[in-house]
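To whoever is covering the structure queue this week,

Two jobs came back overnight. Logging them here so there's a record in the thread.

Job A:
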Amino acid sequence: MKKWYCNTKTQEVDSYNESGDLTDFNRGEFLAYGDYLVTGYKTKEDALLGLKTWLPCDTCNGTALTTKNNPLICIRCNKPLKEVSK
């Protein structure tokens, strides 16, 4: 089954294939950007929307979910997030 992911650090969206417990996810992408990746989207459009919902956190070196109340505060470390421009 084709799945999609977004990379919050690079603002890129791409696909990978999943079959049971196995995937063909790009290993280099995973090693370089691990916690900046949000996986499991069913469509490319959903992954593109994910780029608006998740932002990279340079303090945590990962991805933080933005919230309606605090859209630019990391929910893990409470530090400000920077909006990424494409």
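Job B:
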Amino acid sequence: MSGDKAHDKHIFQDKDKLLDVWKDERGSRDNGVGLMWENMRFYSVLIPSIITVYTLFLGLINQPLLTGYASGFLKVSWAFPSAIIVVSAFGIIDLYCRWNRILEEIAHLRKA
């Protein structure tokens, strides 16, 4: 135990080691922000894509050549709005969790 305390004092007295710890914490924060940004880009592409496919799908239902298939299309037409809602919920939950992690990393950085 006494060796651990002596080692801790040595780390806190060595400014270069403290600077290395601070840089590692800052890199971790920057990585977290990068991941959050990538997820925001992913969901901002996925949700409009689903909306576009759904709009095209509804346009196909009204085509005179496909009137016999319209009942089949209408049976699965609920899947697209449900997918939009589910994907949006997953995106919001993921963004919230990543934001909390970033705030924790900032708090650790401030402590360092």
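Note for Job B: The chain has one domain: 2-111.

Please reply-all if you pick these up so we don't duplicate work.
Q.
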